[in-house]
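Weekly puzzle thread! Below is a chain. First person to post its structure in token form gets bragging rights.
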Amino acid sequence: SSPQKGGNQLSDGEGQNDMDAFKELMTRMPKLEVMNLGQLHGMVFWAGAGAKWARLQIQIAKGHPEAAALQSQVDAWYRDGQMAGELEMTGQQRLGKIAKGTEPAEVPRKKEVGSAGGMDPTGSGTPPKWKRLGFSNEKAMEQAEFLAAHPDEVKEVIEAARRDRDLPSKGAVRTKVELKKSEAIRKELLKKKRDAPPMSAYPSAATR
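Winning reply:
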């Protein structure tokens, strides 16, 4: 018998449509390097939705009473989820590079209006950079810039996910970056301790 939907059972429908939409979209997309902003944002959105759905399916399948019968399907979810997760992250990296190379908007200047010389509170100016570049908010742009600034960690997370039968995630990249920072601080402290003069090099209280 095939697995049915329910409390401990697999979801379908809308989530599967997200994955199907992503896979269909990728058949029509140019290479990442030549995508325009609209194409990049579209790919990142649908890749993220597909990866999220695949991750959920895999998690549910692990505790499913018919898990053994689902193995071939789980393998397919891993393949699709890894592809979607990798493209979501590399697409965000590309957007982050574009954002880093884009000048921020000038602060809008208030205009004098009327004979009394009052100030126009709206002023004029360019929309903020995140809006001009098509991001949903400033935080989303900062996330993309973070991934663009850490290509080595993104690559390591993707390679680890492939090796460990997992899906790559932005959270794993951030964790890896923080661990590397902590390790660098630890090594610097050890170096300072190792390079410090021995206590015998300092005059004792009796000889001062």
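Puzzle host: Confirmed. Bonus trivia for everyone else. The radius of gyration is 26 Å.
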